[in-house]
């Protein structure tokens, strides 16, 4: 009996008695896949270290080029749309409650029209409006079987990996990798576009323009990918959240610009970075009717996603959708482009400024991220601390995006010009190389 009162230290540092543990044994169980997740979410660790620095150095002006968060106010046409959405709710004749879970028909049509400019035919029934690309890129895996083998670019936006870990598609996390995942290294040698795996994989996550490397897949690279997916009977999950940052006319903005892609790819996009909706929340996913999978004659992936969304999602905000409609109007597109250009001018300033002091920099030309190689073979976190201490600039360690991000560092072009210029100047003057 006495033994039951012995103190035990749990993994998370909590001390309990064995009696407590015995009582807990019959309680509801948690999803233990969460235990597999590597350390805390990247951005909370950055926030923790930045806070500690500020506490040690009160009054220091910290310059943040870390998170990919928009800073510029919404353009006039979108504000008009959002106001219209609010005003409609104030009148009994125009008030709406729950809408179509798949999205406002007018917005789905406007999104389909958006693809026409790329010579891509999308049926509004293939468009699913959502509250953002993060939600969709995390949830899309839920319609696929647990045993599917998942391939991811390395480094990449961490949500694809984490959502599959939580869903139990991987084993333990060791040496920076989850067992069971197929990592596709994106390195300087392959121009940050991966070699496709030899083994059979079922789901392939690709993000172009890539977060964090800023690399954009060429038409040829995407054609190879589509051919590969069709040959291996795999499905591509293509995240195009930064497509509006592609300036080079030869680079594809949608995977559907590649012939055959509607048979093997789902595309996710967002109003966050193209229209400043990071706080408003609006995105979309295209699930083609032609998408082929096991039992395709019986099950359509489009119908499965529809079932998932109608069960677990009640539709995007009607106010946000009214704003989204205006963002896709001719005037809205023009205004949004001006904001994208503003961030891309920031990217140019950062890239040029860092190259000038001899740092090796990538990306930043068709994407709002600059990917730099850490000097003197420093680890990503060593460089984070050095940059913060010497220049007071906060960036994002590349290792947080996957094992091949180690030795790299991401700077974001989202920010106000004055802050970006200050940060670049501080790096140029204070970084001891
Ligand atoms: N996809 C990528 C590649 C991203 O980098 C981000 C945000 O940084 C998102 C999706 C999230 O988009 P949203 O704000 O629409 O959820």
- Average of the residue pLDDT scores: 94
Distance between the termini: 63 Å
Sheet-strand content, in percent, reads: 5-15%
**Bound ligands, each once:** pyridoxal-5'-phosphate
Residue windows where pLDDT falls under 50 for at least 5 positions:
none
Shape: globular
Largest β-sheet summary: 7 strands, mixed
Describe the structure.
This protein has 433 residues and is α/β, with parallel strands linked by helices. Helices cover 37% and strands 14% of the residues. The protein has 14 helices and 17 strands. It has a 7-stranded mixed sheet, sandwiched between helices. The protein has a 4-stranded antiparallel sheet with strand order 13-14-17-16. A hairpin with a 5-residue loop joins strand 1 (7-9) and strand 2. The protein starts with 6 loop residues before the first strand and ends with a helix. Pyridoxal-5'-phosphate (PLP) binds at residues 68, 132-134, 137, 157, 207, 211, 239, 241, 270, 272, 278, 283.
Provide keyphrases for this structure.
single chain; 433 residues; alpha/beta; seven-stranded mixed β-sheet; four-stranded antiparallel β-sheet; 14 helices; 17 strands; 37% helix; binds pyridoxal-5'-phosphate
């Amino acid at each position: 009996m006495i033994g039951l009162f012995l103190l035990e230290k749990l993994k998370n540092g909590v001390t309990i008695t064995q009696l407590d543990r015995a009582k807990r044994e019959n309680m509801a169980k948690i999803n233990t896949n969460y235990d597999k997740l590597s350390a805390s979410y990247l951005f909370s660790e950055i926030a923790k270290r930045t806070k500690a620095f500020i506490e040690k150095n009160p009054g220091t002006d910290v310059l943040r080029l870390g998170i990919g968060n928009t800073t510029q106010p919404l353009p006039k046409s979108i504000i008009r749309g959002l106001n219209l959405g609010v005003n409609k709710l104030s009148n009994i004749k125009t008030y709406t409650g729950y809408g179509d879970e798949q999205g406002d028909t007018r917005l789905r049509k406007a999104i389909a029209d958006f693809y026409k400019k790329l010579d891509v035919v999308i049926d509004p029934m293939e468009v699913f409006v959502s509250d953002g690309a993060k939600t969709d890129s995390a949830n899309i895996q839920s319609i696929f079987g647990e045993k599917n083998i998942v391939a991811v670019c390395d480094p990449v936006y961490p949500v694809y990996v984490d959502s599959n870990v939580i869903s139990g598609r991987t084993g333990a996390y060791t040496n920076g990798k989850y067992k069971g995942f197929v990592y596709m290294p994106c390195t300087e040698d392959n121009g940050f576009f991966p070699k496709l795996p030899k083994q059979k994989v079922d789901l392939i996550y690709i993000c172009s323009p890539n977060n964090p490397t800023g690399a954009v897949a060429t038409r040829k690279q995407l054609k190879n990918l589509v051919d590969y997916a069709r040959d291996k009977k795999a499905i591509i999950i293509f995240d195009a959240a930064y497509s509006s940052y592609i300036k080079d006319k030869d680079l594809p903005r949608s995977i559907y610009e590649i012939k055959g892609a509607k048979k093997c790819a789902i595309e996710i996009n967002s109003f966050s970075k193209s229209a400043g909706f990071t706080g408003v929340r609006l995105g979309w996913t295209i699930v083609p009717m032609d998408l082929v999978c096991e039992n395709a004659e019986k099950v359509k992936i489009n119908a499965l996603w529809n079932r998932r969304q109608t069960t677990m999602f009640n539709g995007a905000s009607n106010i946000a959708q009214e704003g989204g409609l205006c963002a896709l109007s001719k005037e809205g597109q023009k205004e949004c482009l001006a904001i994208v250009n503003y961030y891309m001018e920031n990217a140019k300033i950062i890239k040029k400024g860092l190259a000038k002091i001899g740092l090796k920099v990538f990306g930043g030309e068709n994407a709002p991220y600059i990917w730099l190689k850490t000097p003197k073979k420093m680890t990503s976190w060593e460089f984070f601390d050095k940059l913060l201490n010497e220049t007071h600039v906060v960036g994002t360690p590349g290792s947080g995006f996957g094992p091949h991000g180690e030795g790299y560092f991401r700077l974001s072009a989202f920010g106000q010009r004055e802050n970006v210029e200050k940060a670049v100047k501080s790096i140029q003057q204070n970084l001891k190389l």
